[in-house]
Amino acid sequence: MSSLEIAELTGKDHAHILRDIRVVLDEIKDDPNLDHVKISTDSRGYSSEIRLPRDLTETLITGYNIALRHKVVVLQLLTGVATQSPQQSERLTMSSQEIAQLTGKRHDHVVRDIRTMLGLLNFAAPQIWGTAFIPGRNNSRREVEVANLPRDLTETLITGYSAPLRLAVIRRLHELEAEVAKPPALALPNFSNPAEAARAWASEFEGRTLALEVVKERDQKIAQDASKVEYYQKVRSAVNTESIGDFAKKLEYGEKKLFKWMRESEILMTDNKPYQKHLDAGHFRVLDKATTKADGKKITYTQTVLTGKGKQYIQKHLKKAGSPDLSE
Fold first, then answer.
1. 45 in a structural domain
2. Rounded to whole angstroms, what are the CA distances from 264 to 154, 167, 268, 269, 321?
3. Burial 28-51 (b: 16+ CB within 10 A, else e)
4. 3-state SS assignment for residue 47
5. Residue 163 is part of which domain span?
6. What digits encode the pLDDT tens for the residues 237-275?
């Protein structure tokens, strides 16, 4: 996935995405998979786009989202080979003091990060909190709040501190997915035994008959769901888009003058529809809309909207044009 696509998906500035990718790559600079990272540069030699393989894409994105990171950890625990009994797993916890010692962070900062994580995951979890006494000044002891986290929350917190650890978790998950997807080894029947050969033939016939029925049901389901699929595709196409008028307001430009500048810059045609090259580049989407008039008559129309990628493109070219005066 490219850095431009990640910026559009996460709503972050592309320059910030490039910065975060460099931080991740620097932390795992000895990893052999870096050969699959593709960096494109502009005429000045600056990075204009970075393409990441799947594992590094997920490593970066889960660093932005605690809820997504928790899902990855839980899924790994569910698909992994259990080494403890359910009773042992329930008792397996790690304290915030141990986490602070392992990561080299201040304990109060770890407690703060735990509260942030629980808030974003919408977990109340009062049972994890307790108190402990730690050494204070002049040989005194003071009471502090501590948390005892179960394994999934411990890994969710710690992998947020370390890109290499997050990458290791994701790669292990991919390995487990690949193992689950492997077809089981087939054992050939003994065809010299008439009874076993007959059972094998009957099983093959039954399997083919069942497969035909499944295909038939699938085709019927596809036909029934065609309209639903079309609807959801239209809904999906509207995500992260913005009308040109609303975008002009955010830029504090006059809407009419922005349209005029986009036509003069051969971004929009005379009817304010984007040129095909900009549709192909993903700068715009043309959405089908419907409305009901006062007399109850329904009418349909199209609306041109900007994608996240398109908004970045417009801002970049406005700067190249010397930020022309587009105020009303």
1. yes
2. 56, 47, 8, 9, 12
3. beeeeeeeeeeeeeeeeeeeebbb
4. strand
5. 84-177
6. 445 678 888 888 888 888 888 889 999 999 999 888 899
Q: Is residue 146 part of a domain?
A: yes
For 247, what's the count of Cα atoms within 13 Å in the CB-facing half-sphere? 22
Burial grade of 268 (CB within 10 A; 0-12, 13-18, 19 or more): buried
Q: What percent of the chain has pLDDT over 90?
A: 7
Closest CA to 157 of 66, 224, 236: 66
DSSP string across 230-251: HHHHHHHHTTT-EEHHHHHHHH
Q: How long is the chain?
A: 328
Question: Is residue 102 included in any domain, yes or no?
Answer: yes
The CA R_g of the chain, rounded to the nearest whole Å, is 28
**Same domain, yes or no, for 215 and 134?**
no
- Total structural domains within the chain: 4
Residue with tokens 């593709």: 38
pTM of the complete model:
0.40
1: closest CA among 46, 67, 61? 61
Helix 54-64 vs helix 14-27: crossing angle, to nearest 10: 110
Residues facing residue 141 across a β-bridge: 135
Among the listed residues 74, 80, 37, the one whose alpha carbon sits nearest the alpha carbon of residue 55: 37
